Amino acid sequence: MISQFFVLSQRGDNIVFRDYRGDVPKGSTEIFFRKVKFWKEDGEEEAPPVFNIDGVNYFHVKIVGLLFVATTRVNVSPSLVLELLQRIARVIKDYLGILSEDSLRKNFVLVYELLDEVIDFGYVQTTSTEVLKSYVFNEPIVTGAAHLPALGPASLFMQGTKRMPGTAITKSVVANEPGGRKREEIFVDIIEKISVTFSSSGYILTSEIDGTIQMKSYLTGNPEIRLALNEDVCIGRGGRSFYDYISSAGSGTVVLDDCNFHESVHLDSFDMDRTLTLVPPDGEFPVMNYRMTQEFKPPFRITALIEEAGPLRAEVIIKIRAEFPSNVTANTIAVQMPLPTYTTRVSFELEPGAVGQTTDFKEANKRLEWGLKKIVGGAEHTLRAKLTFSQESHGNVTKEAGPVSMTFTIPMYNASRLQVKYLQIEKRSKSYNPYRWVRYITQANSYVARI
Amino acid sequence: MAPPVHQSQRSPSPSRPSGKGEVSDLKLQLRQLAGSRAPGTDDSKRELFKKAISYMTIGIDVSSLFSEMVMCSATSDIVLKKMCYLYVSNYAKYNPDLALLTINFLQKDCKDEDPMIRGLALRSLCSLRVANLVEYLVGPLGSGLRDGSGYVRMVAAIGVSKLYHISAATCIDADFPAMLKHLMLNDPDTQVVANCLSALQEIWSSEASTSEEASRERDALLSKPVIYHFLNRIKEFSEWAQCLVLELVAKYIPSDGSEIFDIMNLLEDRLQHANGAVVLATIKVFLQLTLSMTDVHQQVYERIKAPLLTLVSTGSQEQSYAVLGHLHLLVMRAPMLFSSDYKHFYCHYNEPSYVKKLKLEMLTAVANENNTYEIVTELCEYAANVDIPIARESIRAVGKIALQQYDVNAIVDRLLQFLEMEKDYVTAETLVLIKDLLRKYPQWSHDCIAVVGNISSKNVQEPKAKAALIWMLGEYAQDMADAPYILESLIENWEEEHSAEVHLHLLTAAMKCFFRRPPETQKALGAALAAGIADIHQDVHDRALFYYRLLQYNVSVAERVVNPPKQAVSVFADTQSSEIKDRIFDEFNSLSVIFQKPSYMFIDKEHRGTFEFSDELGNLSLGTEAADSVVLVQRVEENDEDLLLSTSEKEESGAPNSNGSAYSAPLYDGSSAPLAISNAPLGPHSPPPSFAIDDLLGLSLPAVPPPPPINLNAKAVLDPGAFQQKWRQLPVSLSLDFPVNPRGVAALTTPQALVRHMQGHSIHCIASGGQAPNFKYFFFAQKTEDASLFLVECVINTSSCKAQIKVKADDQSTSQAFSDSFQSALSQFGLP
Question: Where, by residue number, does the polypeptide cross the bilayer (chain B) (predicted)?
Answer without folding.
Answer: none
